[in-house]
Each structure stands twice: as structure tokens, then as C-alpha cells.
Design brief:
- The complex is a heterodimer of chains A (about 325) and B (about 450).
- Chain A is of the alpha/beta class and about 325 residues long.
- Chain A has 11 helices and 14 strands.
- Helix content of chain A is about 30%, strand content about 25%.
- Chain A starts with a strand and ends with a helix.
- Chain B is an alpha+beta fold and about 450 residues long.
- In chain B, the strands form 3 sheets. Chain B has a 5-stranded antiparallel beta sheet with strand order 3-4-5-6-9, covered by helices on one side. In chain B, strands 1-2 form a two-stranded antiparallel ribbon.
- Chain B starts with 7 loop residues before the first helix and ends with a strand.
- The chains are: A alpha/beta (about 325), B alpha+beta (about 450).
- At the A-B interface, helix 1, strand 6, helix 2, helix 3 and helix 4 of A face helix 1, helix 2, helix 6 and helix 7 of B.
Chain lengths: ~325, ~450
């Protein structure tokens, strides 16, 4: 899939502004960005749902043509939440979609329902499904098309941790069979292990594009929240240790919404935070032990990729921390 | 996603795209299945199936009859009249409501459920989706019309009988001819029913709002009913697709004329083409841009459509006097006189009197319109001066019979006379049974073109 110089405006808002995107066979690309970055509009353009004001899209070396039913052959996925006819059962919905696809997938519906764990609820009407079940049905609907290009918008939204893992496994299996996959997310934590490459969007523009290895290489040191028996002394030791930078975060624990910047004061309820270069955490903890400072809590605040993502996307970390995905999905 | 799940290659890789020709038919089959599974459609089918039986059963147990409707006075005398009265009701309200329920939500439901993005990313184009959905809506609309046709005929024949039908010229049509004409009448009304289906599709696509799509055709039908009561020009009235539902009336004259029928079908086809053309233009150009943008547009479109509709109705109201006024005293007299003659003969035969075939009474009619204008639809008074030969110095006995005549702009009328002149609605026939007095209410039509 190759998208070149895509532009889409809605009234005065430029939702997508000159985006280039290439996804190769077998590649899993993460499309990242905060809410409003233009990810969903970009996916809508790739599906032909929205006509770009400028630019071109090629799927399997052919220009995307919304008037040609074969144009989306081999392309599947969903934009935003997968939607179904609520008065029909899950199975009936898949049968309808298979009918529209005009392929022989109808015979595979049972297998797909089994695959996504909905076999026992297949006869129930979709209006009784939970968000996670709809998400699973959406994945089954995408797989009905035997996709060679899979475009998934927030595929893990509403899924429990086991479901998230299984989506990951599915994505890996499909990619190993040669399918190109685009995973859109505003939570890098959920997709960082899955993706071979990332495109980060901010306000409709690509602010970073490259492989996962490149992103990791450029990522800043991870940040931790630290609680010790003597925070003042831990602060002083950090100043002496190489590869460690310490500070006091104001406004409470950054893991729970506080400000990560170092402008706080331990005497006034600030929390000790450290950023540690790779390989320097263990020496620092040992140094604390030698000095008689007990480590009571050491919590990873941001992974290197998350730090990088937040820096690129310009979004404060408070809303997009791993573990808050269900809340975020619900609010969407 | 369970631990004992189907291996991915088996479940997915075995799917092969066959791409049989005709994505439109795939959409058609899918839409047919969706429509058939909806409760509203099932209830509607039940009403179309059982409604005529309920109507005929109610008529059976009560003596009254819907005389304001064409053929209403004959519902106790012929099962075919039951079907025609139901057709008249259906033309006014039934078909627009059916069109609204079947087609008014067929596109907007995709907006409501957010499923456009699912169906448009399958192997079918917008054109195929549009045509497939349209065909499915048309199939259900016509299917329900057919169901009501059969049901009304069966109900009429079972509960009333297949007696001969009194024509709008006062003669008797054989049961076979009556059946044929009733079937043709329902068939003719299928064309404006399709126009209302197209209108419902336009509402559904333009407003993206299921409520507007469902009630829109009914509101338009109401507006058309009101417009038909306003003004006297025939051109503006002919442009109303609602008047096409009356195109079958002249078929029930002994000398049928086809002008209103042909114009009604042509007008219905024009409405259909315009509505479908506008619908396709809107759908083809639409961006499926997500909830915030769609919601913003979703408010604008119903307002635009409502304003456009209000403007069109206002224009038609202003133009309601456009064209010649075809309702004149001469035409009314020319129609009412032979009808009165034939019904008088029919009455006499019912009473057991021998009446030679083809006999003509000596009638001198005079018709005048109530109100300022001497011509046009509305309330008229017609006096049939019947001169009956008698022995003696005065060779004729003059018997005046006065009718209050309500004439519509399409030339169809209902004439009623006070019981003091022609007796009650029911009279005893030669066998001692109560039958309808043919002269009590007279229906007729004349050509206004």
C-alpha cells in the first residue's frame, strides 16, 4: 500500500496534511498519534470512504478507485468501532458481509467465530454484545475477506488483557503469512511489541516515520517513580551516579496523572522521579543499598517508546498510559 | 478468542474470492434478508394480509358504509367494491406509509448503526449498494401492494361475494370484467407507489434520518391531499403524484378515457426518476467522514430537505389554479344524466319491474355550482327533471330529483339526494331482501382534459 501526499480538509480543519505512507508485504506498521491527529481520517481514505482533496493511494500497485468493486480486494479491517446490524445475530451479520464479499467465506464463518471466541454467542443478537465482543466480531468480519492488507483502527479497544494478547497473536500470524497490517492506536504501549515500523502523526502531519529499531534507538531514557526510606539521600546519590538523572515531580505521582517535569519539592509532597540510561539502573539501586537507603517502590512510568511517542505527538502522558485503555475506549 | 480455537490458516487462508458477476444482486439478497428480519416490516405484512379481512368483517356486521369514498356505498353489494374502497384508502395513505416504512430507513439505518463503513469496505461499490438497496425496497413495496391486492379481493369475495359491480356509468359489469378491472386498478396504482418509494429513498439518503425517511412520504401525501382540495387548474393537480392514485377511476365508466391514467403514470415516472437521480447524486458525492462531521451534516440536511419540500408545496399551492378549469356544468350534466338514467333502470329492475334494455328516460338536467364561480370543483346542485309519459291532457308528468354533487378537480363526483326524493339508502327488492338503492348515492367521472 502506498499513499502519497494525502490531504483532506473538513471546512477550516486540515485533518490530513501531506501524508505519505508505505506498507510492505508482511509488515506491521503502527499508525500512532493522539486523538485528532488524523489517523482515522487517513484510514477512511485508505478504505475509499473519504475522497482525498489531494494525493493518491495505490493498493497492490493499482490506484484506489471507489467505483471499482475489485479495488478493495484483499483489503479488510475497520475504522473506529466495528459496527453491525444490532437486530441480527453475530452469525447473520457475518453471513451478510460474506454475501457482499461474493466469496466462498460463508463456509468459514463457524471457524472464524471459533477463532475469535464467539462460537457460543453466534446466535445472539449483536445488540446484546459487549464492546469487546463487537471488537472480536469486527476482527472476524475482517478475516472473512482473507486480507492481504489489514487496516485496524484501535483493534484492542474494549478487549480484556487476554483478548489483547490474542489479537497480537493473530496479527503476528497474519503478518507471517505475508499480510501487510496497519494498526492505528493512540496508545503505543499496546502495539509497540507488535509493530515492525511506526508512523507518528500530529495534527494531520507525519512527525516521525521509521522502523521500530530506529524509534528505540532514538528513544530517551525510561522514567521511573521512586520511593525510598530517604528520598533526599536518594536524590543526592543520583546526582553522583552516571547515567541517572533525578528530580522531584510536582502534583503527585506522575503514574497517576502528576506532572513528570522536575519542578517539585520533596518537602511539599513531591515525588522522586528518575530517568536512567540503559544499563545504569542496577548500579544506582546497588548504590542506594550501600548507602542504607531502602527502595520501597520503583515503578516504570514511561517506556522509551512511550517517552518518544509523547515527545513526538506532543501529548501529555496522563491520558494514554497503559492500563487505561478500556477507560479511553469507553469514552470514545 | 479461545484456547481451543481454529488454526488461522484453516479459517482464513481457505477463503477464496470468487467475485461472481453482479455485486448488485449480492446487495439485493443481503438487503432482502435484512428487511425480512425487521419487526416493522413483518408487522406491515401482517396488516396488509389481515387488514382487508378485518375491514370486510367489520362491514359485514354493521349496516353503515363509507359513502364518501368511491364505491363505498356498494361495499355490501359486491366484494369487488370492498377491494376498490381499500384501494382508494391505500392510495391516500396506505401506499405512502408502506413506502416510508420499507424504504425510508433503508439508507439512513446505515448511518444510525454506523455500518456504512462496514458495507462500503466490502466487495461492492456505491452504485451496486444503491441499486441493490433500491431493488430490495421496490421488491418489498410491490410485494406488499400485491399482498394487499390479493388479500382485499379474497376478503371481499369471501365475506361479501363476487356479485356484479355497478359501473360509474350506472350499468352492471360482469364479475369477470369487474375482477379484471380491479386487478388493473391495483396494478396502475403500483406506479405511483413506486414514486413514493423513490421519495422515501430520497428522504432516507438526504436527511440520513430514519424518522424523516419514514414519515416524510406520509407528510408529502398529506400535503398533496390538501393541495388537491385547493384551486381548480388541472395542470398543477396533475403534477401531484398523489392524483395518479386516482387514475383508475375512469376505467370503471362504460366509455373509459385514459388521459388521467397516462398522465398519472408519466408524472409518477418523472417523480421516480427525479427522486432517484437526486438520491444517487447525494450518495455518490458523500464523504463517510465519521461521527463529528456526519452529525454536523446530519442536522443541515433535514433542514434543507424540509425547506425545499415546503418551497415546492408552496409553489404548487400558488400554481394550483394553473391550467384550464375542466369542471363545467355541461360536462357534469353530460355525465350525470346517463348515469342517473341507467341507475333508475337498475332500481326498477331491482324492484321487479320489467324494463326494456336500452330504454332512455326523458331527462332535462340543470346543474349549477354553489359559490361565486360558475365552474370548477366543489359543491354543485343538479336537478334531474324526469318527464314521465302519462295519459290525459298533460302528456308528461315532470318529476324533479335534486342532487347535491361534490365534484373533485379530476372530474369524479359523488351525488346524493335527500331521502324525500329517492328513498332511503336501503330498499326492499322484489325478493324482499334489503339492497342498496342505486339512486341514493351516485358515483361518476367525466373527462376534464
Amino acid at each position: 500500500m502506498r499513499a502519497s501526499s494525502l490531504v483532506k480538509r473538513f471546512d477550516a480543519t486540515c485533518a490530513v496534511d501531506g501524508v505519505d505512507l508505505v506498507v510492505q508485504e508482511g509488515e506491521v506498521r503502527g499508525l500512532l498519534g493522539p486523538n485528532g491527529a488524523g489517523k482515522t481520517t487517513l484510514l477512511r481514505m485508505l478504505f475509499g470512504l473519504v475522497q482525498p482533496d489531494h494525493g493518491s493511494i495505490e493498493l497492490f500497485d493499482r490506484p484506489l478507485d471507489a467505483s471499482d468493486s475489485a479495488s478493495l480486494d484483499g483489503v479488510a479491517g475497520f475504522v473506529e468501532d466495528p459496527s453491525f446490524y444490532p437486530y441480527l445475530s453475530g452469525r447473520a451479520n457475518l453471513e451478510l458481509l460474506a454475501e457482499l464479499d461474493r466469496n466462498d467465506a460463508r463456509a468459514q464463518i463457524d471457524g472464524l467465530l471459533e477463532l475469535v471466541g464467539l462460537r457460543t454467542r453466534a446466535a445472539d443478537r449483536v445488540n446484546g454484545y459487549s464492546t469487546g465482543m463487537r471488537q472480536r466480531l469486527g476482527i472476524a468480519a475482517a478475516l472473512l475477506r482473507a486480507p492481504r492488507l489489514l487496516l485496524l483502527d484501535e483493534p484492542t479497544g474494549g478487549l480484556d488483557p487476554a483478548g489483547v494478547r490474542e489479537v497480537g497473536t493473530l496479527v503476528r500470524e497474519l503478518s507471517s503469512q505475508g499480510a501487510a497490517i496497519v494498526l492505528s492506536s493512540h496508545q503505543i504501549g499496546e502495539v509497540e511489541e507488535l509493530c515492525d515500523s511506526f508512523t507518528v502523526l500530529r495534527r494531520g502531519r507525519v512527525v516521525w516515520n521509521g522502523s521500530a529499531a530506529q524509534l528505540r534507538a532514538q528513544a530517551p531514557a525510561p522514567g521511573y517513580a521512586l520511593a525510598t526510606s530517604d528520598d533526599q539521600q536518594a536524590l543526592a546519590i543520583a546526582a553522583r551516579e552516571p547515567g541517572v538523572e533525578a528530580g522531584v515531580a510536582q502534583g503527585g505521582n506522575p503514574a497517576h496523572g502528576g506532572d513528570l517535569t522536575h519542578g517539585g519539592d520533596l518537602a511539599h509532597g513531591g515525588d522522586l522521579t528518575i530517568t536512567v540510561q540503559e544499563g545504569y539502573l542496577d548500579p544506582y539501586v546497588l548504590a542506594l543499598g550501600r548507602a542504607g537507603v531502602a527502595v520501597r517502590r520503583l515503578e516504570l512510568l514511561l517506556s522509551p517508546l512511550e517517552s518518544m511517542f509523547f515527545a513526538l505527538a506532543g501529548e501529555p502522558p496522563s491520558d494514554d498510559r497503559p492500563g487505561r485503555s478500556e477507560q479511553a475506549a469507553a469514552s470514545r | 478468542m479461545t484456547a481451543t480455537r481454529t488454526p488461522l490458516p484453516e479459517a482464513v487462508a481457505s477463503v477464496r474470492s470468487t467475485h461472481a458477476a453482479g455485486g448488485m444482486w449480492s446487495v439485493y439478497r443481503a438487503e432482502r434478508r435484512k428487511l425480512a428480519s425487521q419487526l416493522a416490516i413483518r408487522l406491515l405484512a401482517l396488516v396488509c394480509l389481515l387488514g382487508p379481512f378485518v375491514f370486510a368483517a367489520i362491514l359485514k356486521v354493521q349496516s353503515g358504509s363509507p359513502t364518501d369514498t368511491l364505491y363505498g356505498v356498494w361495499v355490501h353489494s359486491s366484494g369487488f367494491a370492498v377491494s376498490l374502497v381499500l384501494l382508494a384508502f391505500a392510495g391516500s395513505w396506505g401506499f405512502p406509509i408502506v413506502a416510508g416504512i420499507v424504504a425510508g430507513d433503508i439508507f439512513s439505518s446505515e448511518d444510525r448503526y454506523g455500518t456504512w463503513k462496514m458495507v462500503l469496505t466490502r466487495s461492492c461499490t456505491r452504485r451496486e449498494l444503491f441499486v441493490g438497496k433500491l431493488l430490495a425496497a421496490t421488491t418489498f413495496s410491490l410485494g406488499l401492494v400485491l399482498l394487499t391486492t390479493v388479500s382485499s379481493l379474497v376478503a371481499g369475495m369471501l365475506l361479501v361475494g363476487d356479485q356484479s359491480l355497478v359501473s360509474l356509468s350506472g350499468t352492471l359489469f360482469s364479475p369477470g370484467r369487474s375482477l379484471g378491472l380491479v386487478l388493473v386498478s391495483w396494478l396502475v396504482c403500483a406506479v405511483p407507489a413506486l414514486a413514493f418509494t423513490s421519495l422515501a429513498v430520497l428522504f432516507s439518503i438526504a436527511t440520513r434520518n430514519g424518522i424523516m425517511g419514514v414519515i416524510g412520504p406520509g407528510l408529502v401525501a398529506l400535503a398533496m391531499q390538501l393541495l388537491l382540495l385547493v384551486g381548480s387548474g388541472i395542470w398543477a393537480h396533475m403534477l401531484l403524484v398523489g392524483s395518479a392514485f386516482n387514475g383508475w377511476h375512469p376505467l370503471f365508466s362504460t366509455h373509459p378515457y385514459y388521459g388521467p391514467l397516462i398522465v398519472g403514470i408519466a408524472v409518477s415516472l418523472v417523480w421516480t426518476i427525479v427522486c432517484l437521480g437526486a438520491s444517487w447524486l447525494i450518495l455518490r458525492r458523500r464523504d463517510f467522514a465519521g461521527v463529528p462531521v456526519a452529525r454536523r451534516q446530519g442536522w443541515a440536511m433535514p433542514v434543507r430537505v424540509t425547506l425545499a419540500l415546503a418551497g415546492a408545496i408552496a409553489l404548487l399551492a400558488i400554481a394550483s389554479n394553473w391550467g384550464p378549469n375542466g369542471v363545467t356544468a355541461a360536462r357534469l350534466q353530460a355525465s350525470l344524466t346517463p348515469t342517473f338514467n341507467n341507475l333508475t333502470l337498475l332500481q326498477q329492475r331491482e324492484l321487479g319491474r320489467a324494463v326494456p334494455a336500452g330504454v332512455k328516460l326523458n331527462i332535462v338536467p340543470t346543474c349549477s355550482r354553489r359559490g361565486s364561480s360558475p365552474r370548477g370543483p366543489g359543491d354543485w346542485v343538479c336537478t334531474m327533471n324526469v318527464f314521465i309519459p302519462q295519459p290525459g291532457a298533460v302528456p308528461f308528468q315532470q318529476t324533479p330529483v335534486t342532487y347535491d354533487v361534490s365534484v373533485q378537480s379530476d372530474g369524479c363526483y359523488k351525488a346524493q339526494s335527500p331521502p324525500a326524493f329517492i328513498g332511503n339508502q336501503l330498499m326492499g327488492n322484489a325478493q324482499g331482501h334489503n339492497v342498496v338503492n342505486p339512486l341514493y348515492t351516485i358515483y361518476g367521472c367525466f373527462d376534464t382534459m
